[in-house]
Prior knowledge:
This is Alanine racemase. By secondary structure, the protein is an alpha/beta fold.
Amino acid sequence: MTATITPAATKIRLDTATAHLDPPVAVIDLPSLETNAADLLRRAQGKPIRLASKSIRCRAVLERVHGQPGFAGVLGYTLAEAIWLATDPTHPFPDVVVGYPTAERGALRRLAADEVARERVTLMIDSAEQLDFIDAAAPGHPEISVCIDLDASLRAAGGRVHIGIRRSGVFTADDALALARTVAGRPGFRLTGIMAYEGQVAGLGNRPAGKPLYGLAVTAMQALSVRELAARRAEVVAAVDAEFPLRFVNGGGTGSLETTTAEDAVTELTAGSGLYGPGLFDAYRQFSVAPAALFGTDVVRRPRPGFVTVTGGGWIASGPAGADRVPIPTYPQGLSLTGTEGAGEVQTPLHGVVADVLAVGDRVWFRHAKAGELAEHVAAFQLVGADGTVQEVPTYRGENQHFL
Length: 404
Ligand SMILES: Cc1ncc(COP(=O)(O)O)c(C=O)c1O
């Protein structure tokens, strides 16, 4: 029989492992990271998962997960980052697709000059304008691998309703084939893949807390979108692959692994956030995440019964500003932010019955609403094992690497 790990036991383990560190302190709870990685693999049903590095932003964690069977390649977020990951002397990542188009002139010049980086890095494009930009930034560059970003949004009512990310102008098989032919006709470029990220499925929770009707509407929209995209993605891939054999077709994200992997046209998936288990990923019906990345800060005062105030706490996530972007008090269980102050710049009041058992100096653990952004606030993560051992590893910020 395996013993259940209770939230109270996890809190004690994290508190003890980090007791020597002043707040704020950020941890990766390794048992939870492993649970989350295993669950991503289960949901991927055998298709390889490319790691979305924006949602991790720590090389030690990337290396650790990438080394497990079932994970292959990185979906980077800037070209400078991709070159850095691909050309590291001790642990180079052999396959980094930059998930978004780039306008980094200096990094493009470095890519053009570096044969190893060019072998390992693929750029994202959705129009000939980006090819022109690359040519202008690095005139006469040797062959660069590119991937076409197919728009995966749902268009309804004859195009008047747009649901999903406003991303690429490539929507139909004709659009994709035309761009693939343009790439083939331009010296210095090689088409290697197609990516389509269905953010309205993969990144939008279908069980939002306290909004059951909205959740049902999201679920219905997602079912429609999954059907529409499966047919369109198959058509696009068949058309392009027949003329220009593709090395990979990438799709999905943490929230869509089940449906994306079911498409025969897709050869690999992407996921990142599901490893850390941030707050926004509590809102899904078909899976749950374990809290793996947390930040801890300490009680500094007790304004009145039922309340404690901790230092800092206000690490707010990107995206449409709203209540779901604030950090979530996680350990001890039973604490909430206040409606009037929220998560503050220098201090955060929290309330709940459990507040009365906390003293000045006690640690409270929060989850960030999003995954990788936590790493921008701290120089290191403490990797805490099941036995309470702790290893400090630098985040990207701790390695003095700031890409966004
Ligand atoms: C292109 C792309 N693919 C995949 C993902 C999924 O990443 P995650 O699993 O971290 O949500 C994202 C997230 O925004 C993305 O932009």
